[in-house]
Amino acid sequence: MNFEVYPLVFKPILKERIWGGAKLSSLLHKSIPTDTTGESWELSTVPGDVSIVANGNYAGLTVNDLISKFPEEIMGKNVCDNFGTEFPLLFKFLDAKEDLSIQLHPNDELAKKRHNSFGKTEMWYVMQADPGAEIIVGFKEKSSADEYLYHLENKSLPSILNKVSVKKGDVFFLETGTIHAIGAGTVIAEIQQTSDITYRIYDWDRVDAQGNARELHIEQALDAITYDVVASKKKYEMVVNKSNPVVDCAYFTTNVIPLEGKMNFTKNGTSFTVLVCTEGDFSVVNGSGVEFKFKMGDTILLPAALTDFELVGFATLLEIFIS
């Protein structure tokens, strides 16, 4: 069976969250179920939340179905050599109407041992931020397990954490173990390892409609936390019609493309490419001149077999692949 090569998009998997809002609809045109929708999982192979193709001849198939039939055509040879048929990344949009919990993620070793999962290295690209919006990332000063537990007990943990003002276009790279929280008034594009393992350590003493607090993971977090000060904010250039490097780590490479007009690409087939449109409209034009149109809020999987293509339009794009 021959693989039909075209840009793939998927049905959003929408998640209600206690901290969610309505911007996934107003800003990104998602058909949200309620005005407390916090997440749109755009491309996922997390068990129970596997993305379904929304366009073209493969519409209705899951991404896992496609990868099992056409592993190298979709993932690329290098990615298959390293991950088999497990798609290694998860892509989301998040709308934080309220503050998210203060949390962190375990590394590969701990996640494998405790949860039989990948760890969760991630990055955030700020798509929109209200005036005064902040995030929490790491400690203000080098800390320790004892200091962390003391402040948790006294409900003063935020006082020793590093708060950072955010604006559109800011990028934060969060290595595993980094304490963090997305603050109210932000919309984030998130790129991460395929993992849903989160250690929640403080939730602002919130309760749900039934008066129940969400589960915390105080003990599990103790040996997973990075107590050193971290430098998570990434600086990058915005040269027009160029792939500007932002993050290059063992798990993924992310560039930012300010597209104005046309850009030609020749890939080597060793990895898939994902494009996340954070602003504007654009098209992917294949080698036969067939045009596929996309807009802000779209997440597009370009199979590894799509090696020659052109981007046309006026947009800001995140370009993600595995080196």
UniProtKB/TrEMBL annotation:
Keywords: Isomerase, Metal-binding, Zinc. Residues 247-319 form the Mannose-6-phosphate isomerase cupin domain. It holds the Pfam family MPI_cupin_dom. One of its GO terms (molecular function) is mannose-6-phosphate isomerase activity. One of its GO terms (biological process) is carbohydrate metabolic process. The keyword Zinc applies. Residues 11-117 form the Phosphomannose isomerase type I catalytic domain. It comes from the Bacteria. The active site is at R200. Binds 1 zinc ion per subunit. Zn(2+) binds at H105, E122, H180. InterPro entries: Carb_Metab_Reg_Kinase/Isom, Man6P_isomerase_Firm_short, MPI_cupin_dom, PMI_typeI_cat, RmlC-like_jellyroll, RmlC_Cupin_sf. Its cofactor is Zn(2+). This is Phosphohexomutase. It comes from Flavobacterium enshiense DK69.
